[in-house]
Amino acid sequence: MRIAFVVQRYGLDVHGGSEALCRIWAEHLAARHQVTVFTTCARDYLTWADHYPPGSEELNGVIVRRFPVDAPRDLDTFNEFTHQVYANRGDLALGEEWMRRQGPYSTPLFEAIVAERDDFARFVFMTYLYATAYFGLPLVADKALLAPTAHDEPPIYLGIFRQLFALPQGFLFLMPSEELLVRRLFPTEHIPGYEVGLEVPLDPEPQAEPLNDLPELLYIGRVHPSKNVDQLAADFARYREEGGKPARLLVAGRVDTPMPEHPDIAYLGYVDEARKRELLRRCALLVLPSIYESLSIVLLEAWAHGRPTLVNGAAPVLREQTLRGGGGLFYHGYAEFVVALDTLLADRSLRAALGGQGRAFVARRYTWTAVDTTLERALNA
Fold first, then answer.
1. pTM across the whole model
2. Which of 281, 301, 351, 362 is most buried, taking the most CB atoms under 10 A from its CB?
């Protein structure tokens, strides 16, 4: 089967959630299908400025076709416009202009989808939130699947998405709570949905955390206010200053917002896959403070290394993921953050037990064998 994925950005050095999921699915399907990715030349998710050269290349068995973005995004102007749009959620014309500005908008990409629609049996659009899906999916709706990566966040309540969610031939959901949200917000009873996860490789020899080092809390991901990382850093600094148990917070990811300085907080910047695995192997626990989150791949990766997790319980998907996997704790607000952190840091055996439960959950649910049947069924339906 010839399958096309459409995603906002794509590359070995791109580490957004939906982008990583797209690459995992595309590379695995390429073992027995002809897979092409339609994407933009952008790498920066804030400006969408062209970074990669336009054209085609092969990455890990997948043909990647990149198209230039019509214009980069001015974030300050866009944020001001967003306030206006959120105050008028039902205004479709205003909402569509917001989506165009949200980007990345690439006229050549949309033209290529139209020109080559008959060359592919399926088009899989990754995430509802960006212009690549909003303007691209209607062009091939009769053969389109949507992986919405939806969660309860302000944009999903804009009126424009009612028409988008009515179009695909099927949904690829990551969690039951995601499907419940989509079914509650949009009239989609006629569209089948499939819960499709991803393969998360298990660490073949999970290591005990270092005995003599200071326990390390690890955050991996975008360092941006939308991920609540600034609040995590502030809460951890307060925790240490109020006499909390000795520990360090390591923040791995490109810093896109002012962050508090503290002697027990280290900002590592972007880390590659090898460095990420090393950090997961030696940390005491992974912390995820985000409120708006779909299925967290890095949470599964922490469990695959036998590491427990501490997540923000205000994120329904993270809370559900934690309860299903049994691999960690969740908190609401600073007081619960302190109690949860004290509990985890005080008991190495508890950390090992939670990490072990999470690892067993990943072994059951997130192998390619477990995912493959459902994904193939969705593609062939």
1. 0.78
2. 362
